[in-house]
Design a protein that fits this description.
By secondary structure, the chain is mainly alpha-helical. Helices cover 77% and strands 0% of the residues. The chain has one domain. Keywords: Cell membrane, Membrane, Transmembrane, Transmembrane helix. It is found in: Cell membrane.
């Protein structure tokens, strides 16, 4: 891969990540406000792990199989929607939050990692997106695997940077708004998760842009 081709790839990713927040970004904002940026790193790690898995699936040429199975896509999509909606409604309907023990359980590393992983995995279009994106920037005259590794790692770096930026901004906003505690915080966090569910639900079978 030439330097010019790689720079074009960077520009493409830059334009892509300038889009509005998607389901994973809203989930990151919610977790950073409720548990802090450090805890939300587990959720970000789950998202990146799911994206890496989707890249591997795309590299093995399974994107065509996935795109041809509308039933599988629909099932994965609505399972993710239901999961996010459940998390959001549980926060909104919770009166006292269950005390410190329940809050600590909600912020457990495994639970946050699972949230990030399952939310990203619930978007099956990511596999199709990677399968369509990467070949545009691969030099056919050079070994393919090293190029795929570079393209994939670069995407994950962009994704991580964006999620960290959203998380840091959310944590800073909470610190500035000292009143944002207890029920008010749960309502905002729950609403953000319902928003993430709505964004995922709004995607149709032809939408392959959003991968987060």
């Amino acid at each position: 891969m030439s330097a010019e081709l790689y720079l074009l790839y960077l520009a493409t990713l830059g334009a892509f990540f300038l889009g509005p927040p998607d389901s994973t970004e809203l989930l990151t904002i919610s977790n950073a406000m409720r548990h802090g940026l450090r805890r939300s790193l587990y959720q970000i790690g789950g998202d990146l792990s799911a994206n890496a898995l989707q890249m591997i699936v795309a590299a093995f040429g399974l994107a065509a199989l996935i795109s041809s199975s509308a039933v599988a896509i629909t099932a994965i999509k609505w399972a993710g929607v239901a999961y996010l909606a459940y998390l959001g409604l549980r926060m909104l309907l919770s009166r006292g939050g269950g005390g410190p023990r329940a809050a600590a359980a909600d912020g457990a590393p495994r639970r946050l990692y699972a949230q990030g992983f399952l939310t990203a995995l619930a978007n099956p279009w990511a596999v199709i997106f990677f399968a369509a994106l990467f070949p545009q920037f691969i030099d056919a005259g050079a070994p393919v695997l090293p190029q795929l590794l570079v393209l994939g790692a670069t995407y994950l770096i962009f994704d991580a940077a964006q999620l960290l930026a959203y998380g840091a901004a959310a944590q800073a906003a909470k610190q500035r708004l000292g009143w944002l505690q207890g029920r008010a915080l749960r309502r905002i966090s729950g609403s953000l998760m319902l928003g993430a569910a709505a964004l995922l639900a709004s995607k149709d079978l032809t939408d392959v842009k959003g991968t987060n």
